[in-house]
Amino acid sequence: MLPEWCRLIGVVILLAGIALRLRTTAVVLTAALATGLTAGLSPQQLLSILGKAFVDNRLMTLFLLTLPAIGLCERFGLREQSAKWISRFGTASPARVAIAYQMFRILHGALGIRLSGHAAFVRPLVYPMSAGASHAPLSEQEDERIKAQSAASENYANFYGQNLAPVQAGVLLVYSTLTSLGCQVNIWSIVIYSIPMVLLSLLAAAVQFLLHERGEA
Predict the structure, then answer these.
(1) Which of 74, 96, 146, 163 is deepest in the core (most CB within 10 A)?
(2) Are 170 and 163 contacting, i.e. CB atoms less than 8 angstroms apart?
(3) Cα Rg for the chain, rounded, in angstroms?
């Protein structure tokens, strides 16, 4: 029987994988397998748990259906047209586009709507619009910064915005964990206490985006 602290090997694997920038899926799966084996689970039990988790969450793979449609839209000029359209607005800028998209995603999170943001919005729309909003040719470094900024706006909004809907998995997980520990909480109180964090994330992101834009100027 291995000591209890050996079960933390999964945390070590996760930290090492992130530090070495290895493929996230492989790192998480390896950490899960290592944790299960050190906890005394057999390989058959681990496969059963992983299979059940996949079946229970199979609806999350529906975003794959959007990829062919997005690919066709890009093939026929979606990115070019979105960049051309945003360039007509003289007041548009990469930072303002990123802030507006972050607010858009927070609203969808509050409504309980899950979107495959990076595949469906960031790559075909948000990034080309941000690049077009610069109203000038971009260097390779500036282009990469706008790509990162567009992806960051999606990550910030999705991570914090989903806590504004009581039907989201993150809120339900917090609620079930607290109630299992004997804490008397209301699911709406979790949503209400998430609002300040959402506003702070929006403010911090806006400051970050605007500072990056000034640095480019």
Answers:
(1) 146
(2) yes
(3) 21
Q: What are phi and psi of 88, to 5 degrees?
A: -70, -20
Give yes or no for residue 217 having a pLDDT over 50. Answer: no
* Cβ atoms 213, 153 nearer than 8 A: no
Which DSSP helix (H) or strand (E) runs through 55?
helix 43-56
Alpha-carbon span 110 to 165, nearest angstrom: 5
117-165 pLDDT per residue, tens: 777 778 888 888 888 888 778 788 888 888 899 999 999 998 888 889 8
The domain segmentation of the chain, as residue ranges, is 4-56, 59-216
Q: What's the N-to-C CA distance of the chain in angstroms?
A: 61
Distances (CA, A) of 168 to 115, 183, 193: 12, 20, 15
- Residues 135, 83 contacting (CB under 8 angstroms): no
Q: By 3-state DSSP, what share of the chain in percent is helix, strand and coil, each rounded to 5?
A: 80, 0, 20
